[in-house]
C-alpha cells in the first residue's frame, strides 16, 4: 500500500491508517480544505494527522482518544517532551521493565500522566502488533525469533518525538468520548475543517482495543455525525451491520492490507458525509492498492 515509507508517528497501531494519507490529502484538495483544521476523534497512532501536519496540508490538527493511556502519551510528548525523552533515554528495554511498565499502565491513578503515557508507549513498542492488550514480542521467556526490543529503535523514536514536539503549538489533544467530542465539533473547529473517523472495528474491535464498541455505540456515532455541519468521512471494516447503520450515506468498498498479529487483507468500507465531494479517482488508484 502506498504512503510514507518512513513512519511519522512513534506509535504502532492495530489497523492504523498511516498509509491512508494520500487519499485524505486528495479529499482535502477536492473540497478546498488544504491549510485548514483536521480532526481525528479516534486518534490512536495519528499517522494520517502527522502526515497532514508535516506536509502543511492542515494548519492545525485535533487528536482525541478516550483511552487515558493513549491520551497521556500524546499529552506528554506535546507538553513535556524533554521529560519524556529523558525517560526514553534511561529506560532499559528488558523483560523486567516490561512487567513494571505493565503495572503502571494498569494503575493510572497511581502515577503521573507523564509516567502513565510513557508506559503506554513502552508497551506499544514491545507488545505484538502494538496492541496494549497483547503479549510481549518474543514471549515472556524471550524464546521467539524476535525479542522485545525489535521495534524499539531509541534514536529513531527520539527524532520522531522531537519533530512532533516542535509542532506542539499546532497540535490540540483531547480525552473525550468520541460522541461527546462530535457534539462539540461546531464549537471547537472553524468552518474550514475536516474530520476523519476510524472507529474501533465492528467485528474484531474487542480483541484489539481497550475501548471497544457495542452495536449501539456505532449507531450513536452515526447519529451524532448527522447533526454536524463539517465535512467528514468514516472508515470501517466491511460488514453488513455497518452498511445498514450508514445506509443513508454514500459508501465505497476497498481492500486494505494491514497487520494485527499477522499480515492479512481486509475488506473495508469508506462512508462519506453528504456534503463531501468525492475525488474522481477511486481509493484503490490513489493508494495504489492491489485489487
TrEMBL record:
Assigned EC number: 2.1.1.72
Reactions catalysed according to its record: a 2'-deoxyadenosine in DNA + S-adenosyl-L-methionine = an N(6)-methyl-2'-deoxyadenosine in DNA + S-adenosyl-L-homocysteine + H(+)
Domain of life: Bacteria
GO MF annotation terms: S-adenosyl-L-methionine binding; sequence-specific DNA binding; site-specific DNA-methyltransferase (adenine-specific) activity
Pfam families: MethyltransfD12
Biological process terms in GO annotation: DNA restriction-modification system; methylation; mismatch repair
Annotated transmembrane regions: none
Keyword terms, alphabetized: Methyltransferase, S-adenosyl-L-methionine, Transferase
Enzyme class: transferase
SUPFAM superfamilies listed in its UniProt record: S-adenosyl-L-methionine-dependent methyltransferases
Family statement: Belongs to the N(4)/N(6)-methyltransferase family.
Record protein name field: site-specific DNA-methyltransferase (adenine-specific)
Organism of this sequence: Snodgrassella alvi
Amino acid at each position: 500500500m502506498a504512503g510514507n515509507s518512513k513512519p511519522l508517528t512513534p506509535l504502532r497501531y492495530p489497523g492504523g491508517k498511516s498509509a491512508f494519507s494520500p487519499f485524505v490529502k486528495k479529499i482535502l484538495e477536492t473540497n478546498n480544505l488544504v491549510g485548514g483544521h483536521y480532526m481525528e476523534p479516534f486518534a490512536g497512532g495519528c499517522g494520517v494527522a502527522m502526515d497532514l501536519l508535516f506536509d502543511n496540508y492542515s494548519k492545525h490538527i485535533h487528536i482525541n482518544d478516550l483511552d487515558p493511556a493513549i491520551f497521556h502519551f500524546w499529552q506528554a510528548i506535546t507538553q513535556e517532551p524533554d521529560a519524556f525523552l529523558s525517560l526514553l533515554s534511561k529506560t532499559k528495554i528488558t523483560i523486567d521493565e516490561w512487567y513494571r511498565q505493565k503495572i503502571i499502565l494498569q494503575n493510572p491513578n497511581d502515577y503521573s500522566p507523564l509516567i502513565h503515557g510513557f508506559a503506554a508507549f513502552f508497551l506499544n513498542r514491545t507488545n505484538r502488533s502494538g496492541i496494549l492488550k497483547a503479549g510481549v514480542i518474543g514471549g515472556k521467556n524471550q524464546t521467539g525469533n524476535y525479542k522485545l526490543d525489535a521495534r524499539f529503535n531509541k534514536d529513531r523514536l527520539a527524532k520522531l518525538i522531537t519533530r512532533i514536539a516542535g509542532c506542539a503549538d499546532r497540535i490540540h489533544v483531547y480525552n473525550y468520548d468520541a460522541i461527546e467530542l462530535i457534539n462539540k465539533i461546531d464549537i471547537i473547529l472553524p468552518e474550514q475543517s475536516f474530520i476523519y473517523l476510524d472507529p474501533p472495528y465492528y467485528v474484531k474491535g474487542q480483541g484489539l482495543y481497550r475501548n471497544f464498541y457495542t452495536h449501539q455505540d456505532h449507531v450513536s456515532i452515526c447519529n451524532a455525525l448527522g447533526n454536524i455541519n463539517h465535512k467528514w468521512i468514516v472508515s470501517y471494516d466491511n460488514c453488513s451491520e455497518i452498511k445498514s447503520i450508514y445506509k443513508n450515506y454514500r459508501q465505497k468498498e476497498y481492500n486494505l492490507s494491514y497487520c494485527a498479529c499477522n499480515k492479512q487483507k481486509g475488506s473495508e468500507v469508506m462512508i462519506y458525509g453528504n456534503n463531501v465531494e468525492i475525488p474522481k479517482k477511486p481509493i484503490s488508484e490513489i493508494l495504489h492498492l492491489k485489487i
